[in-house]
Amino acid sequence: MNNIYNYTIEELESYFINNGDKKFKAHQIYEWLYRKRIDNFDKMRNIKKEIIDKIKNEFCIDKIKIVAVRKGKDTQKFLFELLDGNYIEAVLMKHDYGNSLCVSSQVGCNMGCKFCESGRLKKVRNLETYEMVEQILIIEEKLNLRISHVVLMGIGEPFDNYKNVLNFIKIINYPKGIAIGARHITVSTCGIIKKIKEFAQEDLQVNLAISLHAPNDEIRNRIMPINKVNNISELMRTIKEYIKTTNRRVTFEYIMLDNINDTEKCATELAKMLTGINCYVNLIPYNETENIGFKRSNSDKITKFYDILKKNKINVTIRREFGSLIDAACGQLRAKKERVI
Ligand code: SAH
Asked: Please, what CATH class does the domain formed by 65-338 belong to?
């Protein structure tokens, strides 16, 4: 049966219209689900019983569940068990500007980035929309807080699950629902060009982050297999187009990997490549994992890299470190659960 949290407001309206009912019903249901946070059709008291019975034949409201929590200082990591027994993770980060949730989009990932724990477990399946929506609902309820920012940077490649991710964004952004502002939502991709082009046409105000991690094909090919089919020059051309179409600034994520992509030469090359592009660079200290040989660049190297970008007038920040003590790097907790270590 189809989960009710899979439905955007438009889809739910169409459902009622197609069943000879008023589309207003969709709004009533949305109010119960997302404003009053009621997850039981029988409690939706302003809707007639015969309609409720019909809805119950059509939709379910099943929830995924939290099976483990790890607490850090400003971070909490949640391991969810899905209804079919698969596991995914979400990470909550407390910032001074609000609570940000890092959401997973797939069970496993097929992108195979060499430094990433998630990729060691191949993709099992895409997440359905409701499984992404519920990561937010359940954590808000459990911790009795409001999530103000969402980043699609958990397990999975969001653009390899395009349709469900798009629906997820529409649902959480809907003003009379969870109402997370588009500018508070960030989609992160390893750089699937075809989908970046499609995304540019969606007329959304969400943020796009690109996991770049290298200033040239030679290095990027070594650490990110996607680059062999979607190389840097084509990626940069696509991003320039994206910025022109959407008028939005793009973020480049750059993990600092010791002796791989952290030299002064790399920094200069990166600065040259990004000059004139409306973007900013997020330098990320690599979160080391026991299973993968890469090491984190030391802070001197990171600072030097940062300085070179600054000097070349590139907007750049060094990401505040989250989660390294709680295995919060992409996929680490799930990996432990699945005992691949
Ligand atoms: N597939 C998407 C989103 C998930 S990964 C993407 O590639 O963007 C989210 C970010 O975490 C990516 O930039 C990824 O490269 C980075 N990442 C993966 N493993 C990491 C680690 N061990 N330490 C720091 N960042 C990591």
From this structure: alpha beta
